[in-house]
């Protein structure tokens, strides 16, 4: 009999500690749940807007109008049959050396073409680095960029003759 009384006391005590789910409790749970979701979204939006590198072109309309001219320039460039090669290598001090060699279709050095270069970071335009290329003779141009981070870069080479662009190329390079 004593055991039965004790088990009833335990059941009654267990029921007394169990709290019923009320409307107020559900409201608080919903507010906390959606508050956490909104808070995480606000933080993620803030990070996304702060790290946005920007657009590739400032005016897509103007870029689309110039696209026909770019196609024609590429046809003329291909008809020349030039062989222009660019090479980027990491130096021991962490800098990057750029070497450009330019030859015409007969293998003669293109000494009358002035080359400029730029190393573009595909993921972030803010990290783009200009490369000053200096002609060293026999169609070879050299440049150097100090402290270039490892990863993927686009080597943009542009050649001009008498102020007119006669060559343009963009090549992906990976620096370690």
Sum this structure up briefly.
With 176 residues, this protein is an alpha+beta fold.
Count of β-strands? 8
- The sequence of SSEs as H and E is HHHEEEEEEEE
Q: β content, as a range? A: 25-35%
Rg, alpha carbons = 33 Å
- The class by helix and strand makeup works out as alpha+beta
Given the C-alpha coordinates, what overall shape results? elongated
Q: Helical proportion?
A: 25-40%
The major β-sheet equals: 4 strands, antiparallel
Mean pLDDT: 85
Termini Cα gap: 82 Å
Unreliable segments of 5+ consecutive residues: none
Spatial arrangement of strands, main beta sheet: 1-2-6-5
Task: Work out the helix count.
Answer: 3
Notes on the structure:
With 176 residues, the protein is an alpha+beta fold. The protein is 37% helix and 34% strand. It has three helices and eight strands, in the order αααββββββββ. The protein has helices at residues 2-17, 23-50, 60-80; strands spanning 83-90, 96-103, 114-120, 129-131, 134-137, 140-145, 151-161, 164-175. The strands form two sheets. The protein has a four-stranded antiparallel sheet, with no helix packed on it. Strand 1 and strand 2 form a beta hairpin. It is elongated, with a radius of gyration of 33 Å. The N and C termini lie far apart (82 Å). The mean pLDDT is 85.
